[in-house]
Design a protein that fits this description.
By secondary structure, the chain is of the alpha/beta class. Helix content is 31%, strand content 25%. It contains eleven helices and eleven strands. The protein has an eleven-stranded mixed β-sheet with strand order 1-2-3-4-6-5-7-8-9-11-10, with helices on both faces. The chain is globular.
Length: 332
Amino acid sequence: QKEVIQKKSENSKNSLSSTMVSITRIKSNKVCGGQLKKFSFESSTLSCTSTFNIFLPAPSEPESKFPCIIYLSGLTCTPDNAAQKAHLYPALAEHGIACIFPDTSPRDVACEGDKADWAFGEGAGYYVNATDERYRKHYRMWDFLAQELKQVMLNFAELDMTKISVMGHSMGGHGALLLAIHFPTHFRSVSTFAAMAHMTASGPGLNAYKKFFGPAEKHTHEWRFFDATLALEDSKGTDKIAPCLMDQGNQDDFYLSEDLLPESFVKSASSTGYSTSTLHSPSPAELEQHLEDATRGSVTLVMRDGYDHSYFYVSTFAAEHIKFHAKFLKAK
C-alpha cells in the first residue's frame, strides 16, 4: 500500500515558501544494509507529477543524520537509471552517505516537440529555466533543483541539510557544475562523469538552447548562465566553487565528437584563478593522494584510458567519487 508523507516545510534562503509538501512512497528496496525508496509528488515548479529515488544508509545509532549527495542524471534518463546501474550503494553505505536521484525533466506535459527528439524535452530538460512561451510553464528544472528539491528533502529527518554535495553524469554533470558555480557556498564538493561542460559549444546543447531560449544574440544572459564554462568565467571575483573532480573516458563517442569539452571548463577555471590539474588513468591510490590537497577553488580532470560514456564506466569509478565526497561531507 502506498504511504503518503506530509510535512510543513520550513522557511529558508532558497525555499519556495512554507507550503505543505506531500510525497507518496511507491516502493522500497533493501540494498547494502540501507533502503532505496521511490516517491512521487505534485511539483508546483514543473506543474506535473514528479518522481525521485533516495538511498538512506542503515543508521549507526537511533538519531543518526546523514550527509547527502544529489545525483543528477543524463539525457534520456529517469530517476531510476543511475539508481539501478551506477553501483553507488556499497560506497555510500560504507561512508554513511545518503543519495537522492531527482528526475531530468517534467513528464507528460504535452509541450511542442518535447517527445520527438531524444536530446530535447522529456528526459532532456538540461536543468535550465526555459524562457520560450512553449516551454516556460513546465521546463523550469533550474528552479526545481535550486528551490523545490530542498523542500522535498526536508521530508527526511535523517538528512543533515548542512552537508550536501552534488554529482552528475553527462547532462547531469552540466547540472552539477552549474549548481556548484551559482551556489558556491551551499555544497561541500562536486564531481562529474563525462560532463557536458560547455553546453553552448555542443551539438545537443545548441539545439536545445535555441528552443528553450531563442537565439543566443537575443538571450545572452540565459546562454551564458546555463553554460558551465561561460558561467565560471563570469563568476570571477565571487566565491570559488567547492572542490571539483571531473572524470572523462577517452573513448567516449560524445567526447570524441566534441560535445562534452571538459578541457574548456578546465581552461576557464585556470583563467579565473582556480588551481587546475589533469591526471591520466591514475590508480585509486594515486588519485586519493592527489586529491588529499583538494580545496575550494581546485579542479581536477581525470582522463580514463579506454572508457566510454556508459554506466559500465560510471560504475567502475563510482566508489572513488563517493570517497572523494566523503572527505568533505564527513568533515566538521
